[in-house]
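User: Quick one: structure for sequence A, then sequence B.

Assistant: Sequence A:
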Amino acid sequence: MRTRFAEEALADPDFAASEKEIRRCVHCGFCLATCPTYVLLGDELDSPRGRIALMQEMLEGARTPSAEVVKHIDRCLSCLACATTCPSGVDYGRLVDHARGYIEQRYRRPLAERLWRWLLARTLPSPARLRQALAFARPFRPLAPLVGRIKALAPLAAMLALTPRHPAPEAAAARMPPAGRRLRAALLGGCAEPVLRPEIRAASVRLLERAGFDVGLAAGEVCCGALAHHMGRREEALAAARRNIGAWSGEIEAGGLAAIVATASGCGTMLKDYGRLLRGDSAWAAKAAEVSSLARDICELLDEAGLPPVTSGEPLSVAYLAPCSLQHGQGVTAAPQRLLRAAGFEVREPDEAHLCCGSAGTYNILQSQIAGALKARKVQRLAATGASVVAAGNIGCLTQIGGAAGAPAVHPVELLDWATGGPRPARLG
């Protein structure tokens, strides 16, 4: 595409990067069939190339974002299926994140939207606040359909519907071990995952230790920053990134790290992007690049290190739900299925495996109607496999799908842990 950015705008690294990505787009339309919102809505402005045209017009002219532009940018899930498909190599994720930051700075949202986004940014990245919020919401969960009839309260209705019926026990602490003979791996503690499904951390620690790693959580670690980043709250995201980099750099200096491991693929994608996000910060660029180079999804690391000997488990059929942030964001596609098969499970891949389930961070709260339609579509495809269990390596997908596909939904590490000597996952009954 031809662009006409002013020279002063291109002096800004973010604008220069966006201009480069816009120029790559040739409007071929390959992305249309892989974009969940275009497949669902059929609106060109809800496709990647339509949004790129909107973003170009907004950024090129340094215009105040209109409500119409914001609507279509907000509807993007950041699933990055378009980037996987694009023959021109457009880094759509970088472009849409810049546009969201621009919108956050220059567009005044309606009061209700501002309040919901502020509440999510304050609550979700904090396990303590999230636990309190869920405890408060749980008694009101049955009111979700009634609350949902009021348009302004749609996010509240979505949050109530996503609230687990029963509280989970707190995730066990796992301090970083001192340097020893074995490889050390820092496990990203996460925000929502330890509150909603603490069993994932427990299974991960057992499995990694069996695979030859000493595992723990670095002191001072916080939310990875992905939730704030994708809401356009750039400075909040970068502050979280710097704090995490500081925590992990301390462990690297203390005894080295073989890997920084994410069990939620959305977080892993963010960690791998720290180097790019902080490339212009002379005080943090080198450390950020080192952290990104060490970041691994847990299935990616186990695939590299080798699965411990299989000693138990059952030959269950598993429908593998590939998280968008893993398959498109990180390019990790074969490792989870390869590990599950090596552990003795029969893996079944649903149709439309490339399409998002509708979770996408805060999307299923802020865009609950579209997210609900995508969930129904994904549930139908998963149920059609006839599998006994659904496996997904992202807490957002697990929360979104739950048991709606007619089968329990668990993280792959829970099945791998079970197959290599751990307990049977509680959700399997």
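Sequence B:
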Amino acid sequence: MTFPSRFTRLEAARARFGDRVDRLGGFLTRGDPLADDVAASIEANESGRASWELFERAARSGIGSVVDAPPSFRAFFDSVERVPLWVDWDIVDRGGEVLLRAGALGGIVLGCYSLVLGYASPGGNKPLVLSGRLEQQAARRLNETAQFVRTTIARGSMHPHGQGWQGALRVRLVHAHVRRMIGRTGLWDDAWGTPINQHDEAGTSLLFSVAVLGGLRRLGVRIAPEEAERYVQLWRWTGWLMGVDAELLPASEAEGERLGALITATQGDPDDDSRRLTRALLEAPLGAATSAGGRRRAHRIMAMSAAMCRVLLEDDLADRLAVPKTGARHAVPLIRRLVSGAEHARERVPFGNAAAFWAGKRYWDGVVERGASAPPLFMQPQALQRGTPFDGARSSLPR
């Protein structure tokens, strides 16, 4: 397998992982044919909005509710409406409990660890760079991610035609549209593989599953083995709905960690786009500040976010992403001790779990409420719709 230039440590990776490295490389050129065909069908329709509405109706009520549905729609929904035998609804329904009870700590891990790890990939970040959404609309994207996660972890939401199930399909279709739009810009280098390919989709799925578990533990959250298993199975099912190849969907946390290590070992170093996207995320609170007091509060949030990033990423990667060192880092050991103490109390105090779930639900419901006035989730990136990526994207792509 010939790897594109984004991979720079192949020989060391092969020495560690053997032929698994080359087997992984094949997924760089694989997209998502079922979703791509649906996206093509929608784009070919003179009334794209009407086609989107047909897709939404099929997601809500099943493909049988759509009279004269295009063949691409039927093939897509025939696939996603078939539930694999390994899906156990009791496990999936309880999969989000660990993140729900973690409350704000879960939000911190998602924003300061999972998303930033995604930016560190010099190839995987290019669709974000071309869309301009993370630099121009970092706060909105962060809110979209939080809302998507909240819907996914809600009990019963991932059953066919549930809210989370529908959300996963919407994200998958948006990825297909972005993949097609990137191809039309003339800015994508085919040596980087297919835009939003299976390799990168699998990596993203791991950021929401095993990376979250690891990040929570690093902050002092205690996670029982059965909780971790349920959480991984929830995101295994979510990844399957989002079109990730079954071969790349880990069945356990340990399996996910091994796959993540393989992906990381072959990846190039963070590039300028990685650092720019990370900076935009950390500076997002400043963009919402409208007063002197608001700006001071935003700077405090930014300092704490940077401190959390450095703790979760560890200093080597944080330095390569240019995450600033702030005085807030001195508060992190205290936070860990407080979290650890609270976790010990939760396990020993009667109704401790119930109290943690109540507080966590309030946090996540607040996330959804704050985003209620935002534009609809998963809108197509306007910059790519016009075919004019934001300034800087052209120069940052390899030639």
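The radius of gyration is 21 Å. The first helix runs from residue 10 to 17.

User: Thanks, that's what I needed.
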